Amino acid sequence: MVRYPRQGKRSEVDAWFNEMMDFRELFERFRQNRLYNVDQFSISVQDAGDYYLVQAGVPKMDPQNIQVFCESGSLIITGAHDEQTELKGQNIYRKSQNASRFTRQIYVGEDMDPSRMKIRHDQDRVRIKIYKR
What tens digit of pLDDT does each residue of 41-74 get? Predict the structure, then answer.
């Protein structure tokens, strides 16, 4: 026989489980990068005649942490962002670290020449010019 606690205690337990479900949903959204939208940056590809021009928004990314390479007609852009924050006060000390990684693969065309690729970083954007063969 299952005995339930008094109604008052049961509602407290239900409230606690509801809070845990909210936390689980938040954690799942964070795990899927939907909270910060790190892996969903803007990108455009333009055929400019004798070369392709690719522009990608990479907010808060250090240019040294962005790699661009070509493989089988596709352009692959990878990057990383690591951030640490520290808060010190009279009765408080908090240190947190946030790390995010992304990879984006875009098919450009078999006629691109990876040896003639030029990359330029402008603030929160990377511009890639890939000449055709």
Answer: 788 899 999 999 999 888 778 888 899 999 888 9
Dihedral angle over CA of 108, 64, 58, 27, nearest 10: 110
93-112, pLDDT tens digit by residue? 888 887 878 888 888 888 98
**Domain shared by 110 and 65, yes or no:** yes
- Are 27 and 49 contained in the same domain? no
Structural domain range at position 88:
43-132
Residues 6+ apart with CB under 8 A from 84: 95, 96, 97, 98
Determine whether 61 is exposed, middle or buried from the number of CB atoms within 10 Å of its CB (0-12, 13-18, 19+): buried
